[in-house]
Amino acid sequence: MKQEKSCGAIIVTKGIEPPKFLLIKHHNGGHWAFPKGHVEGTETEEETALREIMEETHLTVELDTHFRHVVHYSPYEGTVKDVIYFIAYAAEQAIQKQEEEVLDSTWLSFEAALALITYENDRIVLEAAMNYLIKN
């Protein structure tokens, strides 16, 4: 069984109430979700998440590793994948999307983001992130 690991983050506006969440439309599959990508070499999970956010959005963010949510699934037969999500706080909302991987992006309220997200696993991650934000 092949193992894959990706890391990313639920990006939320910092200091804006109510918060806005960043969703990107991935070129691979055309689904709406969060910035993420494969771990490269000896990168830590945190380094991977920050690199992928920078590559896909050009945002400088503050990563909150106290929130760590793992999604485990099989993208295709013979492969299992873990995607580790953190929360990342963005002080600005202007992004420069990576043309090769990102078709579109948008900042949305929690409710609107929940409605636009393509996959149930990602909706569960967003709900967990919102619950974390409310408690902290």
From TrEMBL:
<dbReference type="InterPro" id="IPR003565">
    <property type="entry name" value="Tetra_PHTase"/>
</dbReference>
<dbReference type="InterPro" id="IPR020084">
    <property type="entry name" value="NUDIX_hydrolase_CS"/>
</dbReference>
<protein>
    <recommendedName>
        <fullName>Bis(5'-nucleosyl)-tetraphosphatase [asymmetrical]</fullName>
    </recommendedName>
</protein>
<dbReference type="InterPro" id="IPR020476">
    <property type="entry name" value="Nudix_hydrolase"/>
</dbReference>
<dbReference type="InterPro" id="IPR000086">
    <property type="entry name" value="NUDIX_hydrolase_dom"/>
</dbReference>
<keyword id="KW-0378">Hydrolase</keyword>
<feature type="domain" description="Nudix hydrolase">
    <location>
        <begin position="2"/>
        <end position="130"/>
    </location>
</feature>
<dbReference type="GO" id="GO:0004081">
    <property type="term" value="F:bis(5'-nucleosyl)-tetraphosphatase (asymmetrical) activity"/>
</dbReference>
<dbReference type="GO" id="GO:0006167">
    <property type="term" value="P:AMP biosynthetic process"/>
</dbReference>
<dbReference type="Pfam" id="PF00293">
    <property type="entry name" value="NUDIX"/>
</dbReference>
<dbReference type="InterPro" id="IPR015797">
    <property type="entry name" value="NUDIX_hydrolase-like_dom_sf"/>
</dbReference>
<dbReference type="GO" id="GO:0006754">
    <property type="term" value="P:ATP biosynthetic process"/>
</dbReference>
<keyword id="KW-0547">Nucleotide-binding</keyword>
<dbReference type="InterPro" id="IPR051325">
    <property type="entry name" value="Nudix_hydrolase_domain"/>
</dbReference>
<comment type="similarity">
    <text>Belongs to the Nudix hydrolase family.</text>
</comment>
<dbReference type="GO" id="GO:0000166">
    <property type="term" value="F:nucleotide binding"/>
</dbReference>
